Amino acid sequence: MSSNIRIDKICVECGKPFVAKKTTSEICSDACSKRNYKKRKRTELIAKTIEAENNKKPFNPVVKEKEFLSVNEVCMLLGASRWTIYRLIDDGKIKAAKLGARTIIQREEINNLFNIVV
Fold it and tell me: Are 48 and 88 contained in the same domain?
């Protein structure tokens, strides 16, 4: 079923006037449609990235209160990699204990590493 509707509109992409054959048309040509699609996708990707960045929790506040920390928590606290923490343990700069398969480090050891008095 075809329609004889002709509506004068202005393209949302380029701003030029065009004759629309549908009431929902907003874009004048295929080239404008492709440009608009790329712009929409780029905007969606940027919004998604910003939202993901805002949802990241860089630091767990509970870590500040704990007496014994796991290697991952020490990594978050110091901003170092796991390998760096294990190297410090192997070099004897940090004393650690094994609790089953888990390595735990006392907070005092971290403070002593930097000679911090709390």
Answer: no
